[in-house]
Amino acid sequence: MLSKKKWMLAILLVFLFIVMDKFEKNDVLSTNYSNTLLAPQKPTEIYQKVREWITPNEDVVTVSAPLLENPVLEYSTIQPYGQGAVLSISASQKIGASENGLIIFTGYTKKTGKTISILYDNGETVTYGFLEEFYQLPYTTVNAGDIFASVKRDILYVQVEKDGETLETTDIVDWLATNYEE
User: Fold this and answer.
1) Spatial separation of the C-alpha atoms in residues 164 and 1, rounded to whole Å
2) Distance from C-alpha of 39 to C-alpha of 4, rounded to nearest angstrom
């Protein structure tokens, strides 16, 4: 739980933001901070700004599964499916992060069942679907090699967004080879 000081600080910040917004609308202030903060933005831009403001604390205890010893993702075939690709998996596997990032979605979708999306530090957003189990909570960071999910079914869905564009199946094959092979 947050302490009383943190709650008071949070309430004070909200109050200051509301007052600043009113002053900007009445042209008392010539800044446009409230418009900038309220404007719809891409999650990557917000993540990059927050990441710049916050530096990692050495005293933070990471809550995660054990590190993935062998990050190679094994699959036998790959086929296009929706905006991504479906990989044929011969055995159950644990899926690990290829590099540092932030989990931005964990949930269930109609097309891909249990699904998780990770925004990596290099700007790529990778979505994995048809998962069996999640090992990380949403809005937590993952380090390279951290196990975040497992797949026990015959298929795994992968979608990769890079520089605002969704990769085609042939590009996903190259991406998998680059990120999951040693």
Assistant:
1) 38
2) 31
